[in-house]
Amino acid sequence: MAATAYKHVQGTVNDPTPFPAPNKAHGSYHWTFERLLSASLVPLVGATAVSSVNPILDGILSVAIVAHSHMGFDQILIDYLHPRNWPILGPIAKWTLRVVTGTVLVGVYQFNTNDIGITELIKKGWKA
Fold first, then answer.
1. Alpha-carbon distance 67 to 46, whole Å?
2. Which DSSP category does 17 fall into?
3. Residue 70: CB partners within 8 Å, gap ≥ 6?
4. CA 60 to CA 96: how far, in whole Å?
5. What is the percent of the chain where pLDDT is above 90?
6. Rounded to whole angstroms, how far apart are CA atoms 104 and 22?
7. Which DSSP state fits 7?
C-alpha cells in the first residue's frame, strides 16, 4: 500500500542511483573551453590598447566577453537554481539568461556597427 502512494518514486531504497552516460562535452571539454576563453580575454583586451580601431577585433572581443559572462552566469544557475531542486524557477532562469544573452549580442553588434565600437570605447575609457 505504501509503494502505491508515491507513484513518482521508482524502485526501492536499495536500488542503485542511475547515473547519466559519461559525456566529455559536459565535463572536461566544457571546462577546458571556459579556461581557454578566459585566458584569451587577456591578450584580446591588450590588443585593443596597441592596435588601431579594427571591426574584426571589435567583433571577436565582444563575442568573447558576452560568451564568458554567459558561461559564468550559467554556472551560477546550475549551482543555485538547478532544475532538480527548482523545477519551475530553474528553467525560467535558464531561458531568461539565454534571452538576455541574445539581446546583449544584438546590442553589442549594433554598437560595433553603428557607433564607435568596443575597442574605441575601451580606449576612451582608459584615457578618461
1. 18
2. P
3. 97, 101
4. 24
5. 46
6. 33
7. T
Long-range Cβ contacts of 40-47 (<8 Å, 24+ apart): 40/64, 41/65, 41/68, 45/122
Quote the DSSP letter at residue 85. T
Q: Which has more confidence, 124 or 113?
A: 113
Q: Does the pLDDT value for residue 97 go beyond 60?
A: yes
Residues 6+ apart with CB under 8 A from 90: 77, 81, 82, 83, 84
The domains of the chain, with CATH numbers, are: 52-128 (1.20.1300.10)
Judge whether 30 is annotated as a binding position.
no
Query: What are the tens digits of pLDDT across the range 20-73?
Result: 777 776 777 888 899 999 999 999 888 887 877 788 888 999 999 999 999 999
CA distance 29 to 64: 17
- Is 80 annotated in a binding site? The answer is yes
Q: What is the mean pLDDT of the chain?
A: 85
Query: Could you identify the residue written with the cell 571589435?
Result: 58
pTM comes to 0.76
